[in-house]
Amino acid sequence: MVDTILIPHEVALTPEVIARAFWNMGTDGQTKFFESLADVITEESPHAYGYGEMQWCCLRDELMKNPKANSMHKALSLFAYDYLPHKE
User: Fold this and answer.
1) Residue 60 sits in which domain range?
2) Distance of alpha carbon 71 from its chain centroid, rounded?
3) Angstrom distance (rounded) from CA 88 to CA 72
4) Mind listing the pLDDT tens digit for each residue in 69-82?
5) The CA-based dihedral angle spanning residues 75, 55, 17, 9, taken in that order and rounded to the nearest 10 degrees
6) Residue 62 falls within a domain, yes or no?
7) Structural domains in the chain (count)
8) Which helix (H) or strand (E) element contains residue 63?
9) What is residue 83's predicted lDDT score, i.e. its pLDDT?
10) pLDDT digits (tens, 9 = 90+) for 1-55
11) Contact indicator for 64, 56 with CB cutoff of 8 Å
12) CA 47 to chain CA mean position, Å
């Protein structure tokens, strides 16, 4: 059984498209998204501290300029430290 069908087509992956796709996933898909994000961070930045915490620190400056984005970020990450594994 094939679980992926490839159709050649350009798609603009804007933040809005990614947000809508994420929100329309079930919890299993959202969990897989975060697992995939961890894999990408580990692959592209193998020497990064943890799972890209420095990126989140830089993101903070931009979030402070956008109260709506900052509120959403806080809601998603409120308990993140308790649930995310830490690289050793």
Assistant:
1) 15-83
2) 16
3) 29
4) 988 888 887 766 66
5) -160
6) yes
7) 1
8) helix 53-63
9) 64
10) 556 767 788 878 899 999 999 999 999 999 999 899 889 888 888 777 677 777 7
11) no
12) 19
